[in-house]
Amino acid sequence: MKKENNFDNKIEEIIKCLTLEEKIGMIHGAGLFRTEGVKRLGIKPLKMSDGPMGVRNEFPDNSWVPYGYSDDYVSYLPCNTALASTWNRELAYKEGYVLGNEARGRGKDIILAPGINIIRSPLGGRNFEYMSEDPYLTKEMAVPYIKGVQENDVAVCVKHFAVNNQETERLNVDVVVSDRALREIYFLAFEAAVKEGNAYSIMTAYNKIWDQYCAHNPKLLQEILRDEWGFDGVVISDWSGIHDTKEAAEAGMDIEMSVTYNFDEYFFANPMIHAVEKGIVKEEVIDDKIRNILRLMYRINMFSENRKKGAYNSYENREKTLEIARESIILLKNEENVLPLKEKEIKTIAVIGENADIRHSAGGGSAEIKALYEITPLLGLKMKLGGNTEVKYAKGYTHNEEEREEVLKEAIDIAKKSDAVIFVGGLKHTKEDFELYQNALESTKKEEQLINIDSEGNDKTDMSLPYKQDEVIKELLKVNENTVVVISTGSPVDMSSFADNAKAIIQTSYNGMEGGTALAEVIFGDVNPSGKLPVTIPVKLEDSPAHCLGEFPGKEKVRYDEDIFVGYRYFSTYDVEPLFAFGHGLSYTTFKYNDLKVEVNELEDDVNIKVSLKLTNTGEVSGSEVVQVYINDEKSSVKRPNIELKGFEKIHLEPKETKIVNINLNKNDFAFYNEDKNAWTLESGKFNILVGSSSDNILLKESINLEKDYKF
Ligand code: BGC
After folding, report:
1. Ligand 1 in reach of 112 Cβ (< 6 A)
2. Cα(238) to centroid of ligand 1, in Å?
3. Which sequence spans correspond to the domains of the chain?
4. Is CATH 3.20.20.300 the classification given to domain 5-57+74-299?
5. Of 9, 60, 94, 391, which residue is 20 to 30 A from 326 by alpha carbon distance?
6. Measured between alpha carbons, how far is 145 from 124 in angstroms, rounded to an integer?
7. 591-711 shares the fold of 320-525+534-557
8. CATH architecture of 591-711
9. What CA–CA distance (Å, rounded) separates 329 from 528?
10. How far is residue 675's CA from residue 628's CA, in Å, rounded to a whole number?
11. Mean pLDDT split into 10-residue runs, the chain, 712 residues
12. Residue to mutate (ligand 1; options 50, 53, 157, 259; most atoms within 8 A of CB)
């Protein structure tokens, strides 16, 4: 980690000048999203705001009802699953840059993002705020994202450390998981966020691990985060995640934030003053926290006159959100080249599905924002097609049981009379949906309970599309077999009822303010899709490892018995065929993979492996392909996944163009976490290097031998 020493002396000087009360003011919320400053010493309060899809609306210090002013509209960014679907590190940097730029523009110091927990189950309520089931993809996107944010003199707050992989009982559940799974799956991106991303702050998760709240956990916060990874930034609690003054103080927690307004009574407020005065907590422990906080303040130039001022709602920021949205759209299926639709051949088009006409930005929980605007799919399509094509819209489905038949009938009538049909369905997370969901939980009718939403605070009950969308799709396909099915969700949903019959299927997510523009551009071929799945879409829920090997959601405890076999690691090792595999995503062109070369150069303390191949665009239009490199260990003393992603590059090619793709691997890419030694281990022997366009479409293979025993 980059160390800046030039302000260490200044920090010590300031600590000497601070009274205990002043120090305490700096380590707990004095408003819902700020700490107290020390005016006489020029120390400002630390101002925070949620992400990750933009900078959240402005709240008074002591109310969860936002001000409702007109000055906190912001750019609405694609959610993290959408971002991860781009498999494009540059776009991750841009997303971070926009978020940091807008946070600074809104006068913030810390943006509570990115969320980088692993997507363990399709049912996780906050999956849309997280990136992937794969730790390598998550880390590769998180690191440039963090740099992009912090470039703007704003700190990230990487969340939620650790194993916050479900919303059910999130405040108390105790996660039982092996050290190996922690190291190989759940910690990896956090470790990279610290060591490679130089994240200035980190948020603890609500849940417990090793029988203890994350916020009180010296093993997690001191031994691993600080001593082992070298983190010298600020640890912030999730809001109301602290339960004890001394335990949290001594575990390495720096700032307590909470959801209630009794700021002076927070564990790190008056109770902390008393604890210090009575000698229960040493003042040096508080000084360490102040040191971390001041270090963060220096890092984001809070004491400098030249601090960057940021900007929000700039045209540049909006353009970047569009760029990201374009690459995040995933073409799952395109039989008979139904897509792209040809504008000239279409006079009337039916757009069916409530999701076509829904704005998502103001929902989801703490990720809600006030978007300057949000182009829905319907708006995007109309803007694209203009006045010569008739676009007819019908809801197709509704939560209102009594209206269901009528709404469906209207949709079918429109579809019958149209040259093309686009269905836009999926999940939602508006405030109204949340209320419906809450009511549904209390309902005794099974059918009414199935209101799945993508939202903080709850997990989904199953993978089904709510409001009988399956039936709508089935009926539409009867009327028009070329119906384009667009599923917009932050999590995999059950597509098995239409995956065979629908010829064209698109997966998108909450794609930001320009999401509708990007979707219309993809559907009509102005943009060639290049997104790839960051998660596996299983045929059915029971095929997911957390549900068939481990537990989800558990009760007081949840056991991760699937261990390291998360996502495709499970599907590929246990021969379970997914509906759509991790890494899958089609293009309007075709690519040929050729000439794989693998050069091994064993050095003193590491190994340098150069993987290269030729990639050719063999189709008629330009496009981008994500070349994926997986490794497989032929023989190992522990059971290892059949394949593990260790490299990828996104390559743009004009028609008939060929490029050489280079991807480097090193010793870390071949190691596993050895629980007997509590260390990473590379066992010498034969490894296979597998290159493909998805986890289930390996096109080139080469074997290598690694001879040496490497130290880690
Ligand atoms: C969420 C955090 C969020 C915080 C502040 C909590 O409920 O878990 O992700 O940053 O609230 O809004």
Report:
1. yes
2. 6
3. 5-57+74-299, 320-525+534-557, 591-711
4. yes
5. 391
6. 23
7. no
8. Sandwich (2.60)
9. 10
10. 29
11. 72 98 98 98 98 97 97 98 98 98 98 98 98 98 98 98 97 98 98 98 98 98 98 98 98 98 98 98 98 98 97 98 98 98 97 97 95 98 97 95 96 98 95 81 66 91 94 98 98 97 98 98 98 98 98 97 98 98 98 98 95 98 98 97 98 98 98 97 97 98 94 90
12. 50
